[in-house]
Amino acid sequence: MIEQEKIKLSASLEDYLEAIFFIQKDKGAAKPRDIAERLDVKAASVTGALQSLAEKELVNYAPYDAATLTETGKTIAEKIIRRHRILSDFFTLILGADKELAEENACKLEHHISRELLEDLVEFVEFTAACPRGGEDWIEKFRQRCTTKEDKDCVACIEECLPAGRRHGHGHGRDAQLTTLKEILPGMRCVVQRVKFKKSITHRLIEMGIGRGTIIEVVRTAPFGDPIEIKVKGYRLSIRKQEAENIHVQIL
Prior knowledge:
Elements: H1 11-27, H2 32-39, H3 43-55, E1 59-60, E2 68-69, H4 71-94, H5 99-109, H6 115-130, H7 135-148, H8 155-161, H9 164-168, E3 179-180, E4 189-195, H10 199-207, E5 215-221, E6 228-232, E7 235-239, H11 241-245, E8 247-251
Antiparallel strand pairs: 1-2, 3-8, 4-5, 4-8, 5-6, 6-7
């Protein structure tokens, strides 16, 4: 018996395994004619594919007879189908793609995605469904971003997520909820609400990607508090203490 881990299949043979699985499930066995119709290929191509799969001990097949999957063939087919389903669900449920487009691209990718990456994708889909900050509303906002192609940190969304007291400062005005970036401890995240600087310094900050609505994570503070290492949009930057004192932020 050939070890399952050592079996190498082309994308075409994986499609045949998948087709045989579904036909066998409906009819008990897969006739070459049924396989040809399902995959829209010629009978001669089906014969060659069945012979190759039989040599790999993935199907039970004799010329002019119907084919059935071996246990190993069934296991591999189920894995291929699982990859397809996960990819298709990701495209439709997360990205909001229409079913036809999702199926077409799932068919292309299912043969090439690694097991490790696929499992990460499964974890991501499950995470978005279970995380209190995720859910359908969060996914819908992501779809809207894909549609509008807007590049922003979305202050409005941050405001929505904050408790009412933090949003409105318990009636003491907007400044009551703000602090300066200098006061933010390492590991904490905040969103920029206001920058008070001369034009030249403000321009430098904008070039660094820092402006109203920017989300900042403080990574660490050097001895004596200067400079401060921050993370902005995935990039690590260093900012002077004086600059941090004039950046007013809201803690997330």
